Amino acid sequence: MRVQQIPARIRWAVEVMDIRPDDHVLEIGCGAGYGVEAICERLETGKMFAIDRSESGVDRTKRRAHKYIEAGRLTVRQIDLATLRVPVRRLDKVFAFNVNLFWVRDCADEVTLLHERLVAGGAIYLFYEVTRTQSAPEVIKKSSAALLDAGFRVSVVENKAPAVVGIIGRK
Q1: pLDDT tens-digit profile of 134-165?
Q2: What span, in angstroms and rounded, lies between the C-alpha atoms of 102 and 12?
Q3: φ and ψ at 117, to 5 degrees?
Q4: CA–CA separation, 59 vs 40, rounded Å?
Q5: Each residue of 97-117: pLDDT tens digit?
Q6: What is the pTM (predicted TM-score) of this model?
Q7: 35 three-state secondary structure
């Protein structure tokens, strides 16, 4: 089985997050496991917790990142963010790529849960691939509002190639 390379959009997002070797990171919507792999390869004493509502997403992530699970750096669970009970007392970073939750519906409960689990100075990183440029302003506006309402300071970063926008909420 040939393992696909980590896409440039994921590599760029992980660079923006500036993962430290001792970070505790939560990924929401781990899907194929590209983000998990890119983050876990930077962790030494840190831990990663990855979730996805999809059984197939969890299975793909587990197959892709099995060495990090075996090393004790990664836990992967099939669960919805709304019912999540994070197994670590503190999170340094929360990561989501193309997770619509933050702009398609009210996510105040989920963002509050994340705010409670983040350490002082921690951050939520929401990245969206901009395939339809006319939708980017709405995604930015709604995602930023959800974070601002929960007490985060928000900034936006953009990358032209690949076309990705990132909404960063700092505690």
Answers
A1: 788 899 999 999 999 999 999 999 988 788 99
A2: 20
A3: -90, -15
A4: 17
A5: 999 888 888 999 999 889 988
A6: 0.93
A7: helix
